[in-house]
Amino acid sequence: MRTLLCFSIFCSFAAAKLSYNGFKVFRIENKGSAEELEQSLSSINSILLSKDPNSEAFDIAVPPDQLQAAHQLGFELNTVIDDLGTVLENEGPFLTYIATEKTQGVAADLPPLSYFDSYHPYDEHIQFLTDLQAAFPNNSDTFSLGPSVEGRELPGIHLWGGTGKGVKPAIVWHGTAHAREWISAPTVEYITYKVIEEYQGEDSEIVSILDNYDFYILPIVNPDGFVYTHESERLWRKNRQTRDSQTCIGTDVNRNWPSHWNVSGGSSPDPCSNTYRGEAPGDTPEIQALVAHMLDLANGPGIKAYIDWHSYGKLILLPYGYNCTALPDNYERQMSVGTGVASAIASVNGLEFRVGPTCTNLYQTAGSSTDWAFDVAGAEFSWLIELRPTAAEGGFVIPPENILPSGAEHWAGVKYMFSQL
Ligand SMILES: [Zn+2]
């Protein structure tokens, strides 16, 4: 849709970093159909951020020169962020991560927890995974999938317990499918750190879980988009795929999984939309790599649980996204465990995460990771977790002081899940 086209303002900044000074974030309550609202919004130059799960409201970021036009659309615009540029300043500056010292043949110390005091560029995430592996040399490997459109790896770490590598059913975690959801990677990395730390500390529950399941963890599955959010447009969502005869760049990788791929209403056929699904199911290199990896696991030891970590909205989303009446055949069990996970999360900082099927609790999504992982890869649990916060609390853009609390919340959440597997 036109809202998301590479318009002059965004195109002109393609080579430089886009400033969001003076951008306002508005929430628009949707009184009619979502399609009509999106159509109206397409007449102005704005960025669609998210649809609110409760009210079908839309959050949009509007640049200063479009404010008047936005007000003339006739919607009630509720300001949730007065100046996005100011909020962005609170994200940084990045603190440089110093790699852990290593001695040949000796397990290194775990990386310092100060890593989680800041957001980090792509390369430092790879270094962090390398350092986690060095601290857990007999029970982990780093690996990479890909390459991405621009030739980057999708970095991962594989953890296993006392029974050896690759024989137990898999727990798979993905982060940063959507490039701008920065809280996702460090949250996944924190809970990975905790699995290793508590296994080494001989915590009986964690020893048991790692002895019974192998973990395959990829904190950044959309590396090109992620790098682009650092270098050019902080609020970029899609990958960076170009296609012949298309001017707009990027496919929404979480609408490109080869499952219920083009169900009407769950994604966009418009290359300029933020939810553009691609031209064919699984036609992004990132999803092809993830599909191949997960099918290997599904056809080998099997996949017990899959979690795709996103932000924002404080939600635990189950299948299905493509259809609001279809339910997974183990719906009761997934809901029961999900409700327990939400309680465990709430016990840490009091944040309430809502649990339910994606379509009825967020919005309709076609070609999504969780529908695919449940239907095709056979994951018994297949969830998308929308991390903190809400739009009014910053949306995608929240200070790094949120990283450790987010990590602690979801460490409590996954520990509850482990207890139920
Ligand atoms: Zn997302």
Automatic annotation (TrEMBL):
<feature type="domain" description="Peptidase M14">
    <location>
        <begin position="118"/>
        <end position="421"/>
    </location>
</feature>
<keyword id="KW-0378">Hydrolase</keyword>
<comment type="similarity">
    <text>Belongs to the peptidase M14 family.</text>
</comment>
<feature type="signal peptide">
    <location>
        <begin position="1"/>
        <end position="16"/>
    </location>
</feature>
<dbReference type="InterPro" id="IPR000834">
    <property type="entry name" value="Peptidase_M14"/>
</dbReference>
<keyword id="KW-0645">Protease</keyword>
<keyword id="KW-0482">Metalloprotease</keyword>
<keyword id="KW-0862">Zinc</keyword>
<feature type="active site" description="Proton donor/acceptor">
    <location>
        <position position="386"/>
    </location>
</feature>
<protein>
    <recommendedName>
        <fullName>Peptidase M14 domain-containing protein</fullName>
    </recommendedName>
</protein>
<dbReference type="Pfam" id="PF00246">
    <property type="entry name" value="Peptidase_M14"/>
</dbReference>
<keyword id="KW-0732">Signal</keyword>
